[in-house]
């Protein structure tokens, strides 16, 4: 009996122990499940939002609709109306509509792409407009000759080189035959504004064929360099000579700002030895001359040894006065050049100055002719038209054509920016980019408003700011850097952390599913 009792007691103890172990296992299982769900909860509620927050790309909202509208409707929004005043008798008032119609017809026939962009607005000069600030046509009648032996006068015109005035001479024959309006239209379109209309036509058609003009910038560095071939000391009275450029820079101030600097460099040797020609132009150079051919001009400037590089972000226009050695008192001449100078497209100009052997200083009187040549080079490099002769009209033409180019390039930049941000969804759009875009659009509108008012100086100034702001928006460094940092790189950064965490979670979840399946199966049995 006692043995049976002991067996029963031992079985009871084993059952109790088994129940205790099972209970402990159930407790561990519950704790493990709680830990698993806690980790899952922390990852979902804290980890994922934190991951999204730390990897999210900031994309400022750009005024896309406004940019696209301005780009598509650009030629519909920009409009030039140039006022022209006729100094003529009051009786001409009834002829003004006919003259206006002739001018409009000529523009429409010759420049169909500009008929909705550019026009001349003719007025009879009843406002006493000053010659300096307005375009004026002074009409002069040429009477019929008194004698049959006298030559019949012809229509002619003369553009003043000092103002915006043009003098027109019209004969009685032209007035009677109603050809005076055609002649006035010819003077305005062919004689004064032809180069402007040609330039605008090329801009409208996206034809950029100018290989001489330097790239546009709101600021230019103008560097005058005295390059002396030998080591002999040579000074120059440059401070007074530069005053010749002061009125030019002042008139061009709405277009751009100019920073002027000078330098002198000795031992500025050429890369090649000039060719001596004893019979070259004997009437001028009795002992012959050293001649540089037109083919050698491309290698005249020694870019490697001459200190001509500028580290400024703005374009540099270089003007070089090259003083060669005496060459046995024989001059250094550029072949087929009347000024002994040449222009380097998009870079600057060079003048070769042959000084006397004992000269140690270049005076103001000697430098003035050189400055006049450089001023002509500057006009070509900036894109001023060759005609008409009036510098005031030339600058107005430069302002108007530059305004169109700047505004068009500004909208092209902004449109390209919108397309870039739409195609690359993961590229960041910093707040600075949005600010630059907003500024560009504001200056765009201001420039258009000034065009409507006829203030072409302010119009080109605002257009320059619009263009610069669009460039800054497109090339904002934070956005450019982000373009080369795709999402795969961000994943690579977080993978060392995410790998262990997700592996633990995955293994725990698999074990939890297996235990649940096993428990369900045991209950079913």
Count of the separate structural domains: 3
Determine the strand fraction and express it as a percent band. 15-25%
Report the principal-axis shape: flat
Gyration radius, in Å: 40 Å
Low-confidence stretches: none
What do the pLDDT scores average to?
Answer: 83
Structural class estimated from helices and strands: alpha/beta
Oligomer: single chain
Largest sheet properties: 5 strands, mixed
Number of helices: 15
Span between termini: 36 Å
Order of helices and strands: HHHEHEEEEHHHEEHHEEEEEEEEHHHHHH
The helical percent reads 40-55%
Keywords: Endoplasmic reticulum, Glycoprotein, GPI-anchor biosynthesis, Membrane, Transmembrane, Transmembrane helix
Pathway: Glycolipid biosynthesis; glycosylphosphatidylinositol-anchor biosynthesis
Membrane topology: Multi-pass membrane protein
Transmembrane segments: 30-51, 491-513
Could you characterize what this model shows?
This protein is of the alpha/beta class. It has three domains: 2-56 and 486-524; 80-204, no CATH class; 219-382. The protein is 49% helix and 16% strand. The chain contains 15 helices and 15 strands. It has helices at residues 2-55, 64-72, 74-77, 96-110, 172-176, 180-192, 194-204, 238-241, 246-251, 364-382, 391-423, 431-453, 456-474, 477-482, 487-524, and strands at 80-87, 118-124, 135-142, 156-159, 165-171, 219-228, 235-236, 257-265, 275-277, 289-292, 316-323, 332-334, 341-344, 348-352, 361-362. The protein has a five-stranded mixed sheet. Strands 8-6-11-14-13 form a five-stranded mixed sheet, covered by helices on one side. Helix 1 (2-55) packs antiparallel against helix 15.
């Amino acid at each position: 009996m006692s043995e049976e009792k002991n067996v029963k007691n031992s079985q009871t103890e084993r059952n109790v122990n088994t129940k205790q172990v099972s209970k402990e296992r159930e407790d561990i299982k519950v704790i493990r499940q709680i830990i698993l769900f806690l980790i899952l909860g922390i990852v979902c509620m804290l980890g994922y939002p934190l991951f999204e927050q730390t990897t999210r790309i900031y994309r400022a909202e750009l005024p896309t609709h406004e940019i696209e509208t301005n780009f598509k409707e650009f030629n519909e929004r920009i409009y030039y109306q140039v006022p022209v005043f006729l100094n003529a008798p009051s009786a001409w008032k009834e002829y003004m509509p006919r003259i206006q119609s002739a001018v409009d017809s000529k523009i429409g026939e010759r420049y169909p792409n500009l008929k909705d962009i550019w026009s001349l607005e003719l007025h009879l000069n009843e406002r006493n407009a000053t010659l300096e600030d307005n375009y004026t046509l002074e009409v002069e009648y040429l009477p019929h000759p008194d004698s049959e032996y006298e030559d019949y006068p012809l229509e002619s015109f003369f553009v003043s080189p000092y103002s915006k005035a043009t003098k027109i001479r019209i004969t009685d024959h032209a007035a009677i035959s109603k050809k005076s309006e055609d002649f006035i239209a010819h003077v305005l379109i062919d004689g004064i504004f032809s180069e402007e209309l040609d330039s605008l036509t090329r801009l409208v058609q996206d034809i950029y064929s100018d290989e001489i003009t330097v790239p546009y910038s709101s600021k230019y560095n103008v560097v005058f360099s005295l390059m002396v071939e030998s080591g002999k000391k040579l000074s120059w009275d440059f401070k007074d000579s530069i005053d010749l450029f002061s009125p030019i820079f002042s008139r061009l101030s709405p277009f751009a700002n100019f920073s002027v600097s000078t330098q002198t460099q000795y031992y500025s040797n050429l890369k090649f030895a000039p060719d001596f020609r004893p019979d070259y132009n004997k009437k001028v150079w009795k002992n012959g001359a050293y001649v540089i051919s037109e083919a050698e001009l491309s290698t005249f400037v020694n870019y490697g040894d001459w200190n001509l590089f500028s580290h400024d972000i703005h374009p540099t226009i270089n003007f070089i006065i090259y003083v060669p050695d005496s060459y046995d008192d024989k001059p250094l001449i550029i072949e087929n050049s009347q000024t002994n100078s040449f222009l380097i497209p998009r870079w600057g100009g060079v003048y070769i100055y042959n000084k006397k052997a004992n000269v140690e200083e270049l005076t103001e009187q000697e430098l003035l002719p050189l400055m006049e040549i450089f001023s002509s080079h500057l006009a070509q490099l900036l894109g001023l038209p060759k005609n008409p002769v009036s510098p005031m009209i030339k600058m107005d033409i430069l302002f108007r054509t530059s305004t169109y180019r700047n505004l068009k390039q500004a909208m092209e930049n902004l449109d390209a920016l919108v397309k870039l941000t739409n195609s690359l969804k993961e590229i960041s759009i910093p707040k600075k980019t949005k600010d630059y875009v907003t500024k560009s659009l504001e200056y765009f509108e201001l420039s258009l408003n000034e065009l409507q008012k006829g203030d072409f100086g302010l119009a080109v100034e605002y257009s320059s700011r619009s263009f610069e702001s669009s460039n800054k928006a497109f090339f904002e460094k934070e956005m450019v850097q982000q373009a080369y940092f795709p999402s795969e790189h961000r994943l690579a950064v977080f993978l060392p952390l995410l790998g262990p965490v997700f592996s633990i979670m995955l293994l725990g979840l698999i074990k939890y599913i297996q235990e649940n399946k096993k428990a369900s199966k045991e209950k079913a049995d």
